[in-house]
Model the fold of this input.
Amino acid sequence: MAGTFRFTFGPWNIHEGADPFGPAVRDTVAFNRKLELYRELGFEAVQFHDDDVVPDLGERSVADTLAQARAVRAKLDEHGLAAEFVAPRLWEDPRTIDGAFTSNDPACRGYARDRCRLCVDIANAVGTKLIVLWMAREGTYLRESKDSAQATDRIVAAIDDMLRHDPDIRIAIEPKPNEPMDQSYIPTTGHALALAQRTVSPSRVGVNIESAHVILAGLDPSDEMGFALSFGKLWSVHLNDQNGLKFDQDKSFASVDLRRAFNQVRVLDAHDYGSNGEYVGLDVKAMRTQGDDTATKHLSNSRTMFLRLLDVVRSLDHGAIQDLIAKRDYEELDLHIMTHLMGG
Ligand code: GLO
Ligand code: MG
Done:
């Protein structure tokens, strides 16, 4: 019996459309309204940054912060939603300008580690045991400004800190090769999983793989996912699409390369992704041209394309494919797949 998939996104995926070259072009959608939209759009869980849960984080006492997080959990319950993960937003505070765990300033490193422990507490209060770690600024603008071996040790120590803070928390590293940094320290799935082995609890460190990030590293998303699946370490995905090697585009899933998207769905379905409660996350951005009333289509369209590709995957003629593989007629297999993608 084929499994079903459950979808999720983050509140940042409904946004005002500002980019580095221009201001917002849409009204802000209030958090409560966003929560109403999840079910309407076909989604079942919310991905959070720590300050999506508690917007004025840092200005509140710890007790207040956790009370606010519990209030958000109650709101999720009202809407029949779950929290998938909480991610510490370690890239906006002035203390993270030169990195968080790998900052050259010990006071800044201390700030990052305190914030991560609080993030774990927020995750517990909002009802999830999964932390996503996108290490936005762990890398360099200037190679000579940091020591890459020491930086790696510092990242391991920071992850250990979180793992020790809560023996039940799991951490999914979201690798990305660049942006905002020139070069990031944990650019690929392989780096993340190697790092996991160095921590105090390797079994509690896995990955969240984002299609666009993998493409930016010049790799294939479905192969990266397969690698992580083989280790039992694919705990979340950020599906989207990316048109070549440029800034991180977060385009709607499957909108650039249908076959690449098909192969991601294929590997996820083949290996029962979701059967341990994993969600299909869509980390997609609306085009700046969308108006207020049409700025959620990137989410519903991405989900629709995933489900349509799932039908395509599940209607593959496995016998015919096996025959072609046995004959090593990969040219014919290529045509077979393309024909199938085009509707037969
Ligand atoms: C940016 C990342 C970012 C993360 C999010 C969760 O490139 O994709 O959107 O996924 O902050 O940690
Ligand atoms: Mg992402």
In short: Strands lie at 7-9, 45-49, 82-87, 130-133, 139-140, 170-173, 183-184, 205-210, 234-239, 280-282. Residues 7-317 form a domain with the TIM Barrel fold (CATH 3.20.20.150). Residues 87, 132, 134, 174, 176, 210, 238, 248, 283 surround D-glucose (ligand 1) (CB under 6 Å).
